[in-house]
Amino acid sequence: MLTMFTNILIAASQDPINLRPDAGGSFGSLGDLQFATIIQGLVGFVLIIAALIFFFMLVFGGIRWIASGGDKAQTEAARNQITAALVGLVIVFAAWAIVQLIGTFFNVELLDITIPTPGK
C-alpha cells in the first residue's frame, strides 16, 4: 500500500506545474474585465468577510459569557453580542438567498449586470 502511494506521489511530482494563468481563465487578461465581474467578486468578498466577522463576534461573545463569572450585567452584554452576531449572519445570508431565489424563479440574474456599450 505504501509503495503504491509513493509511486503516485512520484508520478504526480513529475508533472510540470504551470503557475501562469491561462488566457481564457478567471485571471486571464484584465482587458476583458467587466463591471458585472467586479460586482460579483465584491459581493462574494463581502459575504466571506461578513461571515468571518460574525463568526468572530459569536466566538468573542461566548468567551465573554464564560468569563463573566456570573455577573448579570456582563452575562447580559455577552448574550446581546451573541444575539446581534446571529441576527447579522442571518440577514447577510438571507440577502444572498433572496438574490439566488430571484435568479432561479424569475430567470433574472441580479449579479450579472451587462451594460450596453456603443457600437455593439
Please describe what this structure looks like.
This protein is an all-alpha fold and 120 residues long. The chain has a domain at 33-115. Helix content is 67%, strand content 0%. It has three helices and no strands. Helix 2 runs antiparallel to helix 3 (72-106). The longest helix has 35 residues, at 72-106. It is elongated, with a radius of gyration of 24 Å. The N and C termini lie far apart (60 Å). The model has no long low-confidence stretch (mean pLDDT 75).
Write the layout of secondary structure elements.
Blueprint: H1 2-13, H2 35-67, H3 72-106
Helix pairs in contact: 2-3
Percentage of β-strand residues:
under 5%
Question: What low-confidence regions span 5 or more consecutive residues with pLDDT below 50?
Answer: none
Head-to-tail CA distance between termini: 60 Å
Q: What does the overall shape look like?
A: elongated
Q: Could you give the order of the helices and strands?
A: HHH
Radius of gyration: 24 Å
Main beta sheet strand tally, sense and closure: none
What is the structural class?
A: mainly alpha
Average pLDDT for all residues: 75
Q: What's the count of strands?
A: 0
